[in-house]
Amino acid sequence: MGSQQWQWEESQWKSNNDQIVYHCRVRTNRDDLPWQATRIYDIPSDGHQALVRKTGLSPYRIYDWARVTEHRENNGYQDIYVSIERIWFNRSEWEWKKDSQYSNRKKQGYRSRFSDELTGSLLQKLRGNYLRLADLSTIAKENLAVAVDLPQHEIDAWCQIEKVERKPDHFIIHVSILNAWLKAPRRDDWEWVAESSPTGDNSLKYYTCKGRAVSSQLMIALNSPRSSRKQVSADGWRKLAEKTGLDVNEVERWGQDFSYTASPDGLKVRVGVPNVWICADLLQGGNLWNRGVVNWGGTFGQAISYLGTWGKKEIHCWDIKDLIDTLIKYKGRIWGMVLYAHGMPIGQISESSEDSFNQATLITCVKKQDFKLAKLYLMQCYSGYQGNVSILWNELDKFIETRKSKEPEKHKYMNRSEF
User: Fold this and answer.
1) Architecture in CATH for domain 277-387
2) Is the pTM of this model over 0.85?
3) Where are the domains of the chain?
4) Predicted confidence band at 391 (pLDDT cuts at 50, 70, 90)?
5) Pairing between strand 313-317 and 276-281?
């Protein structure tokens, strides 16, 4: 065949919504064997180049996008018709927009026109609706990651292709992203905020924060059967301790009902903190002297003790038994306490009614909380008692004799061993 003049033009009457048909008329060299272009492979390279220039499509993909649909010989000429699906002319950029079709309480949908360069295998996946994230170009993933402000290198964890929608001249890619990812913090957030108790019992005060920056590793950890306290950083626990007044080194003891969850509202760390404030006023009641003068110390002291304890669950105790029972009942949930009572050098604490117990008993009950209270005020004489009575035997003997003289039947067998 001699040199041919390849001039491709669009055939308006053969083109439709799905494809564009190009026509070219070339002379057939009758000195050679009759030539017929039944396949794209039959067209010589200069014909290919002319078609590439006309369409602007990739010359390396011509065997994918071009197909000879018709050929006719007519008086030494051959009319060749090549069809190209309009999908191959997709020249738009990856522009991801919100998609209500795949959005609900749990996830947010996004959609974009497919804008990658097509290949035969890729087109087959698009038509078969089994496209994977790995099939998308870097620019497609990068634009989506920027649109939703999530790490591109973890797109396989936070993105899912929902559907490939076919249009006459393009495809629409529908994806979805869990709201747990979208609403999660992009950087560590340990700003604890108090919230109401889920049970209505104010003995524990609950604090929440958003926690660590979102990542696939964190999501895997949160989806495990038990979320670990280790997911909270040392800085996170330190800020909570500062906010509550408790010892950060004892957080494993006072931090209760811990949870770290991923939900449609994002990530949430929640922990219950002791919130009981005990105000034990053992100065109320007693004889005329106690009622008229001494117990004013408890009355005024209570008013002062309310400062700095707003929002706490306040428990009032009026006698020794009530105090001990309260310490036992709210074990592990006591934030602090204040005690107003009479005190003695030997460490004895007494009510206005003259019932008493040793300060060592109180200290033992407090120690059973397993952590240091945020505030502990013992507002009685000799409240600095350290449990050492070796040099106070004379005072102890006087105290025993006094008790025996006032209530001989009750304290008949009282001796030093009881202290």
Assistant:
1) 3-Layer(aba) Sandwich (3.40)
2) no
3) 9-88, 90-182, 193-274, 277-387
4) very low
5) parallel
